[in-house]
């Protein structure tokens, strides 16, 4: 009976996550269940600085994306001389800082395109959860919405060539975090109230993985947590216990940076390297009873992204490559509908707002495309500062983070042309 109750809670959590797409909260990297989709109708395609609700300067710099709950925004930044991690809470109304917390650390070698604050927080109605790492210590902390520390977990050393960047997600009363690295690796679930480890699933070690998991609920089946990594390919575990359910460990032969997405019942993931060889896979999930093994449905190698995540809109899959090539596919078959170059370089991932794709280039240009079977460039908006972050949407407003500024755009009070 207890197990059945847990299953029902997880299914309800998934249903609620789907309903949040058009609601106030944006609780994790790329919003509800990592889909990156919002149905907001109050965000323009084209804007000028005069159309911003506000632009808030941030202390230091960072790559993390904002998350929101109610009237508060949470994100992280890095200060130098001396080096500090900064956790920030801002007002939705004007971008002013409600509170900030600072934690010192010793700088270490990382990839030149990474940041010491690349992981995005996760948030629920009571707490915000923030990870960061040094080679000696992988830390996950929880704060209440007023900035007080609720709990802290030391996950041990973090060994990686490039630093860390995996973001957590909240699932019911659990906080889920992947700790896949060159050293001792695991998947973990924490009690959101106390920080106690509810389960810990050991993983093989390979190149560090940077994705945030998502929840997949098969028809007539129980919810599954989906992870991407080089060591395990695309895999699923039981959200209640962390028990492995299935994996296609041959899915990737390189590092996986992006987060998994679900498209037409398939799991989409990617891998790659700075030297190329990137590809996207679509995997038909297996079943926990082993009667159906996971199968490769198709693979995309031409203009495949390495860092940006894919996005599924209805029965179409959009791939936005690091080099600014965008591809529209039939998500079930992988058949290409169109492929066009928009220019620029990209580390942030696309989101979809009212069937329009928004993606921020590394130079700070927001490119807006129509999410349809025909390529249509709607706008190019300049932010005048580099960005590696992915936008967030809540209560009809778009939030775009550059290295040292957070911008708020659109909303019910704005009388702007949406096309």
Name the structural class. mainly beta
Strand % is 35-45%
CATH 4th-level superfamily: YVTN repeat-like/Quinoprotein amine dehydrogenase
Task: Report the mean per-residue pLDDT as an integer.
Answer: 92
Portion of residues within helices: under 10%
Shape: globular
Low-confidence stretches: 1-6, 8-23, 415-419
Topology record:
Layout: H1 2-19, E1 37-38, E2 52-57, E3 67-69, E4 72-79, E5 84-91, E6 97-104, E7 122-123, E8 127-134, E9 137-144, E10 149-154, E11 169-171, E12 174-179, E13 185-191, E14 197-203, E15 214-216, E16 224-229, E17 233-237, E18 244-248, E19 261-263, E20 266-271, E21 279-284, E22 295-300, E23 311-313, E24 316-320, E25 325-330, E26 336-341, E27 351-353, E28 356-360, E29 365-370, E30 377-382, E31 392-394, E32 397-401, E33 405-409
Describe this structure in words.
The chain has 419 residues and is mainly beta. It has a single domain (2-409), classed as YVTN repeat-like/Quinoprotein amine dehydrogenase (Methylamine Dehydrogenase, Chain H, 7 Propeller), CATH 2.130.10. The protein is built from one helix and 33 strands. The chain has one helix at residues 2-19, and strands at 37-38, 52-57, 67-69, 72-79, 84-91, 97-104, 122-123, 127-134, 137-144, 149-154, 169-171, 174-179, 185-191, 197-203, 214-216, 224-229, 233-237, 244-248, 261-263, 266-271, 279-284, 295-300, 311-313, 316-320, 325-330, 336-341, 351-353, 356-360, 365-370, 377-382, 392-394, 397-401, 405-409. The protein has a five-stranded mixed β-sheet, with no helix packed on it. Strands 2-33-32-31 form a four-stranded antiparallel β-sheet, with no helix packed on it. The chain has a four-stranded antiparallel β-sheet with strand order 3-4-5-6, with no helix packed on it. Strand 23 and strand 24 form a beta hairpin. It is globular. It starts with a helix and ends in a 10-residue tail after the last strand.
